[in-house]
Amino acid sequence: MYKIGMIGDRDSVIGFMALGFSVFEAKDSQEAGKILHRLVKSEEYAVIYLVEDYAEKMESELDKYKDLPLPAITTMPGIHGSTGYGISNLRHAVERAVGADILFNNNN
Amino acid sequence: MAGINVNPTRMELKKIQTRYQTARKGHKLLKDKRDELMRQFLDVVRENKVLREKVEMALGQVYHSFSIAGAVGNPQMLQEALICPKKECALDVSYRNLMSVIVPQFEIQVSDAGVDSCNYGLAFTSGELDASVKELNGIQEDLIRMAALEKTAQLLAQEIERTRRRVNALEYIMMPQYLATIKSIKMKLDENERGNTTRLMKVKDMMLKAQREQRIEEDDEIFYEAHPDERPEEEEA
Fold first, then answer.
1. Domain count of chain B?
2. pTM score, two decimals?
């Protein structure tokens, strides 16, 4: 049995406590990075949600865990709204696989 | 494309021909694998995109209603209500083999004390909070599914990238190299063959010439024996 982790600023993540996620507050992306590292290392978490505002600033950290089968680190918009990072992440995956962006080119 | 540097012998030729055949078969297989991976990947990405847009929209609403809940009550109330959840959320992870890429699948297990989605006392909290928690509960499944799809997309992308590189390496480096080597060995062998033939022809010519000269001499001898007066005078040594 694995747990679900949630990292972000207080306002964004507080609601997820109600779902029974393990919620971790982080004041900035550096702290979020530390927490993320700890969670990945503990191997208890299958899914870790990360607020986009922080994820944008820790791309290199996220790339390290990209190719592991677990955990699945997924970004989601914080309370300030979507920054489009999640979709752009998807676009990067398409670019990586196909060599060119063939799905999202009409969006941006 | 320069071939591989090997001795132009029949044995090397056979060896490289086998390697070329293997490379060709491997190339075909990898190409098929890449195409199938790509198909699956695009399906996953499309679904993921739709799901993400849906989740992001729903999350926007959830945040919105949470802020309202926070505004109606007070922030302390909000945290107090939520900080000690009654239910625990756990994930069952199973793995699926997608074209030999192992991708995780998540199944959510909620150890719920009751059917009630609100796991806090109702006395000191506002109705807005109940509504927002309910909304959040609604997108929980989608959130988990999105995480699985996103991971699948990442893993597939990695595998496709690797397969594509292999296919290209085989197609544009290995196979032309083998072909060039095979051609050069064949040319060298043919050249040797031609050299051998001309040598044989030359030797045969020489042998024939020698035979013919000997026969002429023998014929002359017979002729002169029949007509001794026509024999040219032998020079005295």
1. 1
2. 0.79
